[in-house]
Amino acid sequence: MYKVPPFAATLLCAVLLTACNNDSESGNASIEGNSLPESNRVAAASSSRKAADQDAVTRADNPELTADYAKWRRQQIANVDYKISVILDAESESFSGTVVADTRLTGDLQQPLTIDFSGGTVEQVKVGEDEVPFEYNGYFISIAPDHLAKGDNRITIFYRHPYSTDGSGLHRFQDPEDGSVYLYTHFEPYKANRFFPHFDQPDLKAHYRVDVKAPADWQVVTTVREDSIEELDDDYRHWHFPQTKKFSSYILPLHAGPYRVWEDDADGIPLRLMARQTLAANVKPEDWFTFTKQSFEFFQDYFAIEYPFGKYDQVIVPDFTIGAMENVAAVTFNEAYVSRGEKTQAERQRLANVIAHEMAHMWFGDLVTMDWWNGLWLKESFATYMAYLALAENSDFDDVWENFYLRSKQSAYDADGLMTTHPIELPVANTAEAFSNFDGITYGKGGSVLKQLPYYLGREEFRQGVRNYLHDYAYGNATLQDFMQSLGEAADRNLEQWTRDWLYQPGVNTIRARFSCKNDQIRRLTLHQSAPDDYPVLREQRIQLGLYRMQRDTMSRVETLPVTYSGAETEVEAAKGLPCPQILNPNEEDWGYVKVQLDSRTVEQLSQHINDIESAFTRLMLWQNLYDSVLAGRMSLSEWIRFARENAGAEQDINVIRAIASHLESASEYLYRIDLPQDMRLERLGVIEDFIWQQLSDAPSGSDEQKTWFDSFTTVAHTGEALDRVIQLLGSQLTIEGLTIDQDRRWQLVILLNRHLYGDYRQLLEKEQARDSTDRGHNSAITAAAIRPRAESKQEWLDNILRRDQYKLSQVKAATAALFPAEQLDLFDRFSGRVFSAVPNVNAQADTLYSKAFAMVFPIVCGVEGVEQYRNALDKNSGLMPTLEKALKNQRQRSRRCLRIKP
């Protein structure tokens, strides 16, 4: 990815694409029971957009769709609707289809009209009843302008396309257990044209009418329920679906196969849950339906718009490359959300969160959609924030915002501190760049920034602004400017400066509180804000201060003080006269998106009183702050390990325990990476291993704490004594009361033994493969083989990764993620020449998903020579795909950071 410079304020509107489809659709949703009217604002926007520049834009002969061409094409097409007919079967490697595109052109074309269609075969093109000549370059179909006329044109295309094996387009999966074939679609951001030829851009919304011929024992699913199923004589059935409402093609679903189906109802909304038959026994439909009903109850009230798409299906699919996807009324989920054992509460909450996230998109993303992919962050950020809000206000989970802090907020801080950081809103020149922006900025930072807006504007003002936005732009497209205008009008606030500072400038600020006291009361308290040198923007936001003092045996919060700060220094007048704090948390309960540097008095108190602090959320934030100090080089790794050993054992809150366990795993990896005498390294690794085993042994039977420490043990165990326990756990000679060693945990133990070549690791792997013939088991076996610290294993799996001829993308990822763990950097040194020399060939394949998987091979290295290898690779390979370039730059920077960690 290219490095994005800071954006000037004058670019606020200039980077927004203005062409959009604003055809309104009435009677399909309601505002508190009333039908949605055509929006005056949309109509006004449409009028101004029709006056846009009509100059032709030449389309390059390559896989991407550019923003400029999409904008031009939108100006030529007043409306389009599709009828899609496909023939699916279980045996073939491809499918056939016919698409009829009823297309209304705004005028006579001066250049060919292109129709997106990647990697297929075009058999015939007709306009009206006449067959017409066409050109097809493997990326798009071109029809000469003399075959098209102003007004209505019926374009019919007969085509074939191979099924996908990389989780995009129309993906085919054959279950290794029973041989059944399952199909599903995944199109974001620019893969719908791998399913059918059409105008694949979000601002050309359309209605879709679908019919499918498929094997008689298959279930076929799309946005609407079928209106008829025709029984055929050849063990096939012909499914006919009525016309859908209007939406963008990247969220059009088609899923097919012998799925197991569960049914329920959410206050009149029909619900279905589907999974492949061999996974069905592990699915807990009661959890899925409970979380779904709670989300519907919350969102319909919050948005004041009834669910607009009639029914709601959720399909759990194999080989999925992301967590889930908001296909209209037929959402897809990764099978990783199905556990082959009991879930922890954190895992249940993660499932509830992703269900709520995808449902939020039904309104924000599907009902109202961005004009172009520069708006991708807004829909993802909004769904991220709204999912947590839904769980916080309408679920049984009571630690939702702690989980937001642990997951979304930390990923945002990490991404925002890298040289590849970027503004939340930035120009996206083409569809390849759109994909590269799926990162911690898109989800975590965007969600964090939206989370602070209700504090800044007011909760009800924010909610009303969201309602107005969804009402005004329903079934159409909108921009960031439209969204911020809706919020600003509802709150009667001018948000131009806020938008410039937060959405058009990258980087994260740091605040530090300074205070003085007299007579045990605060005399003066100031907040000092700083910014990175590369992004010197000082922002305004509302946070709250948490003031703590010892009262009897508890470090109690004696005051919570909301503060709006801005600029380099803000004096907090309201703090005067408050009790002098022993511990001061400047971002209490995590209102703000900001890094915190603790004052010296607070840091001193932590060594004595971290376990006395009454608020688990504050303890969580302070533990995170301490580990951040290690990564920043302010606290030595040894000092932190000592602090953790002395204090972590007393912690009882599961979220704090999860954070500490994660930091101990990270510390163990850095001990392998940094330059240390071997005896010192082994001593500290032993301390971590012993501590984690002790915590696992002492954890309450059957608790989430126990499961958390088990996961950490299977990451850090390395001594003969610990690995003997692993063998005993696998053979049931050793048991841990309350902990079931289910199939997924068995694989964790087998992978660990292969990672250290311990015991009969080969035989144990073969035995486990025979025991678990599932797709998940096969991927785990690949991980176990690739992680072995032997040169021949690395050679074999590098060959497999680079050849790509016998492994699916999910299997490639199972190998790349395991190839060079931290303790095997010597093996990476031996193979680094081959890995780096493969970069041009991987890049030449122009496969974004594969390049992203390949990039997982590259480790963090803590040596000057290793950093230099990354620099040379970047210098020698100009024009890298955005995802590949971004990965190399990030690993180079993480490797540089590693050099500053103090032993």
Automatic annotation (TrEMBL):
| Reactions listed under catalytic activity | Release of an N-terminal amino acid, Xaa-|-Yaa- from a peptide, amide or arylamide. Xaa is preferably Ala, but may be most amino acids including Pro (slow action). When a terminal hydrophobic residue is followed by a prolyl residue, the two may be released as an intact Xaa-Pro dipeptide
Task: Specify the signal sequence span.
Answer: 1-19
Taxonomy, superkingdom: Bacteria
The answer to keyword Signal applying to this record is: yes
Composition bias (Basic and acidic residues) maps to: 50-59
Q: Which InterPro entries match?
A: Aminopeptidase_N-like_N, Aminopeptidase_N-like_N_sf, ERAP1-like_C_dom, Pept_M1_aminopeptidase, Peptidase_M1, Peptidase_M1_aminopeptidases, Peptidase_M1_dom, Peptidase_M4/M1_CTD_sf
CDD domains hit by this protein: M1_APN
Pfam families linked to this entry: ERAP1_C (PF11838), Peptidase_M1 (PF01433), Peptidase_M1_N (PF17900)
Q: Name one GO cellular component term.
A: cytoplasm
Provide the Aminopeptidase N-like N-terminal domain boundaries. 81-251
Q: Where is the composition biased (Polar residues)?
A: 26-38
GO BP, one annotated term: peptide catabolic process
Major enzyme class = hydrolase
Q: Where is the ERAP1-like C-terminal domain?
A: 586-896
Q: What is its EC number?
A: 3.4.11.2
Cofactor section:
Zn(2+)
Extract the GO molecular function terms from the UniProt entry: alanyl aminopeptidase activity; metalloaminopeptidase activity; peptide binding; zinc ion binding
Q: What are the boundaries of the region Disordered? A: 26-59
Which PROSITE patterns does the annotation name? PROKAR_LIPOPROTEIN (PS51257)
Upper lineage is: Bacteria, Pseudomonadati, Pseudomonadota, Gammaproteobacteria, Cellvibrionales
The UniProt keyword set, sorted, is: Aminopeptidase, Hydrolase, Metal-binding, Metalloprotease, Protease, Signal, Zinc
Peptidase M1 membrane alanine aminopeptidase domain residues are 292-502
Per its record, how is this protein called by name?
Aminopeptidase N
Give the similarity note: Belongs to the peptidase M1 family.
